[in-house]
Amino acid sequence: MATTSNFRNAIKKAQGQALVGPNVINKALPYLGGGLVLTAVGVYGGLGVISSNPSIFMPTFFVAIIAELALFFVVRGIAERADNGTALPLLAVYSLLSGYTLSGIVFVALGTAGVGLQGVGIAALGCGVTFVIARNVGSNLGEEDGLALTKTVQLGIMGLFVVILLQVVLGFFGVFTPSWLEVGISGLGVLLFAGASVVDFYILPRAYRDEQYLSAALSMYLTYINLFIFILRLLIAINGRD
Prior knowledge:
The protein is mostly helical and 242 residues long. Helix content is 85%, strand content 0%. The protein starts with a helix and ends with a helix.
């Protein structure tokens, strides 16, 4: 849900705007990279807890989820004020928490035949390839095409998260998604967040000033983390089918 909130916020700021931060993405990229490295550290820590003390993982997972959601809104507000000295350590903690919560799906991927460490590498490589393509395409989008793609992706992501929320609710009652439907949902998620990565390069320079580079880094971070998750979900769904 934090993803859709951040996406709507960026779109609202960017509507009808010319470039206000022509260098904001270049400034954001080192912090995006640093956040992803810290996320990898968080994943490693989470996997260590699952291996050595599995009984405490789920309680700490839920605590981390709540803390992560709360911290997201705090970090976003501070970063938008361009108070980067305060926002940076909070963003680092957010990245670590995100990695810890991400370790669950990575653990499932590692234990799924046909996915494993190779699948995790494919998901990471897919994010990298998407970044390269998205930077070229998104930076060259015209006003009309950029706004049209932005609105399409926004609506798609909102619908996707409604479906996921429904999946979670039904899961509590023992109703699970058929494998063919999980493949479809995961594939749609991959397409939508690949589209969001293109949108980032169009919308962020129109939404944030150069000194708001941590806000841009947070937006891009959410895009690639979710893309990674949905690529992994797709690989798990395909290889886990009966």
